[in-house]
Design a protein that fits this description.
Largest sheet: 6 strands, mixed
Shape: elongated
Structural class: mainly beta
Number of helices: 2
Strand content: 35-45%
Distance between the termini: 44 Å
Number of strands: 13
Order of helices and strands: EEEEEEHEHEEEEEE
Length: 173
């Protein structure tokens, strides 16, 4: 089993559904049903579970996990994060990357100014946004910056090996 830090949260176990061990599934995958493409799931204290069956139920998804046989069993795993190991993710083509790979990368401008380190990446609906924690002695007094992650407009290059993102961005903004 891998370290917890290598695990990715892809959903959460919801409330029990019925009396035979079924649970509601709250999914964080782009396509809700995509959560069932990953197996096994890691719940709680690094215990692995396999999905026995699943189905849509109205606007939610419900699943029956192996060894979860009763409502009490289902109640025991309620609200646990559904995690997978990073090696379960599909391979990406050249030039593609996962958000988690960006965390910790250095962000510099095309003019060479060091903006800081990527703290987080999130989606706003319009585009992805990179939250950059500024250096302690930032010349512009910034503590953090939010940069739109728009390739070829703001983000010029992402060097995965060098762990550097180059952006066309005014450091004073």
């Amino acid at each position: 089993m891998s370290q917890a830090s290598d695990n990715l949260v892809i959903g959460k176990i919801g409330a029990p559904h019925g009396v035979k061990g079924w649970v509601k599934i709250n999914t964080y995958t782009n396509v809700p049903e995509g959560i069932f493409e990953y197996s096994p799931w890691i719940l709680g204290e690094e215990k692995e579970y396999r999905v026995d069956q699943w189905r849509p139920h109205g606007k939610v998804l419900v699943a029956k996990l192996v060894d979860i046989e009763t409502r009490d069993d289902a109640e025991r795993i309620k609200n646990l994060d559904i995690r997978i190991t990073a090696d379960q993710l599909p391979e990406l083509e050249d030039g593609e990357f996962y958000w988690r790979e960006l965390t910790g990368m250095q962000v510099v401008t095309t003019q060479g100014y060091d903006l800081g380190v990527v703290k987080d990446v999130f989606n706003t609906g319009a585009n992805d946004v990179v939250q950059v924690k500024a250096n302690a002695k930032d010349a512009f007094g910034q503590k953090e910056r939010l940069l739109p992650f728009v390739l070829d407009e703001v983000v010029q290059t992402v060097d995965k090996e060098g762990r550097v993102i180059t952006v066309d961005w005014d450091p004073g903004f």
